[in-house]
Structure formats: structure tokens, C-alpha cells
Amino acid sequence: MRWLFKTEPSDYSFERLMKEGRTSWSGVKNALALKHLRSVRKGDEILIYHTGAVKSVVGIARAVADAQGEVVDI
Fold first, then answer.
1. What angle do CA 5, 39, 15 make, to 5 degrees?
2. Taking Cα atoms as reference points, which of 70, 72, 54, 66 lies closest to residue 17?
């Protein structure tokens, strides 16, 4: 499965993910987004989309575990 995760680069950038190597994707409040987030499974591809001045997919990540409630580890 392939997912699109949206983030403001000033809040959490793809560059930061690359530096840290891993993160937990949490803090999502939209009900429909949470429903989909809970469907993420280990190995799923995640396209990281930046909003703001440059609106585009800036990188690719992979889920390292199945979603745990409202959190995905990538």
C-alpha cells in the first residue's frame, strides 16, 4: 500500500526525518485521516508531502511497524 503523509516543513521536515532516521507519526486530529492512519501496515510506502511555499512530495519513507492506534512509526 502507498500513503501520502502531509506535513509543514517548519513543523517536521523530510530532512529532519532523514537526520533522525525514524519517527512516530502522531498528532493527527482529522477523523478521516485517523481512520486511514490506523490502516498503515509494516512495509507500506509513505510519500512525504510538504505544504507551505513548495507544495510537493519531497521524499519516500516506509512504515517500520503496523499502526498502533493513532501512531505510525516510520
1. 25
2. 72
Which triple of cell numbers denotes residue 17? 526525518
Q: Is the dihedral of CA 15, 40, 23, 61 positive or negative?
A: negative
Q: What angle (nearest 5°) sits at the alpha carbon of residue 66, between those of residues 62 and 34? A: 90
Nearest to 14, CA basis, from 2, 4, 29: 4
Going by the DSSP 8-state scheme, the letter that residue 64 receives in this structure is: S
Element (H, E) at 38: none
Residue pLDDT, tens place only, 27-74 = 888 999 999 999 999 999 999 999 988 899 999 999 999 998 878 888
**Tell me, what amino acid is at 60?**
I
